[in-house]
Design a protein that fits this description.
185 residues; two-stranded antiparallel ribbon; 4 strands; 10 helices
C-alpha cells in the first residue's frame, strides 16, 4: 500500500517541480495466483498480526486523507502492470494507476480479473473493451519483463523506490525528502 500512500506526494512533486514521473513495474508477490489468496496465506509463517497490521494501514491512509478498505485478499498485479504500460503509451498512465490503487486498496477488487481491469480502464479514460486483447496478445508483457529485470539489476527489493540519475531512495518518504532527492541530482 505504500505506493498508493505516496501518490499524493508524487502528484504534488510532479506539479510543483514540473517533473516527468515514470511508473516502473515491480514483481511484488508474482507467485500470487490469478484468483488471489488471503492475507493469512500471504503472511503464513511470518508471525504477523494481520488485523493489527490492517488497522495501522487504515490509520496511515486516514492520516493522508486517503480511503482504505477492508481488503481480505491479495491479488496478482501482473496484468494491471501490463495495462499500466498500455495506459502510459496512451498518456493515461497516472489516471490508470490511481484507478488501480482505488480498486485494489479501497474496494478490494481482483486486479488480475479481466472484467475488473476493463472497468478500471474505462474509469481511467481508456477503452475497457481492449483490455482482453492487450493481455491475450502480450502486447506490453516485454515492457513489464524489462522493468522487472531492471529492478533485479538495480538490486531493488521493495516499493516504492525512487530512482533518478543513478541514485535511489526507498520507502514512502516525506514530500520534503522527495524534493531534496530530486534537487540533489
Amino acid at each position: 500500500p505504500w505506493c498508493y500512500f505516496i501518490t499524493g506526494r508524487i502528484e504534488r512533486l510532479r506539479s510543483e517541480l514540473e517533473l516527468d514521473v515514470t511508473w516502473t513495474a515491480f514483481p511484488l508477490h508474482p507467485e500470487t495466483p490469478e484468483q488471489g489468496s488471503t492475507l493469512e496465506d500471504l503472511f503464513a509463517g511470518q508471525n504477523k498480526d494481520i488485523p493489527k497490521m490492517v488497522a495501522r494501514l487504515k490509520k496511515t491512509a486516514a492520516d493522508l486523507g486517503l480511503p482504505f478498505g477492508d481488503r481480505k485478499n491479495t491479488y496478482n498485479s501482473r496484468r494491471a502492470q501490463e495495462l499500466g504500460k498500455w495506459a502510459q503509451a496512451l498518456g493515461r498512465g497516472n489516471p490508470f494507476h490511481h484507478a488501480v490503487f482505488a480498486a485494489y486498496f479501497v474496494e478490494g477488487r481482483n486486479i488480475a480479473d479481466l472484467a475488473v481491469l476493463a472497468d478500471i480502464a474505462d474509469t481511467a479514460g481508456l477503452t475497457g473493451s481492449e483490455v482482453g486483447n492487450i493481455i491475450e496478445t502480450g502486447r506490453f508483457s516485454k515492457a513489464v519483463d524489462a522493468d522487472w529485470q531492471r529492478s533485479r539489476d538495480l538490486g531493488i527489493d521493495s516499493v516504492p523506490t525512487f530512482h533518478s540519475n543513478g541514485r535511489r531512495m526507498e520507502g514512502a518518504q516525506s514530500f520534503q525528502a522527495l524534493v531534496d532527492f530530486v534537487k540533489a541530482g
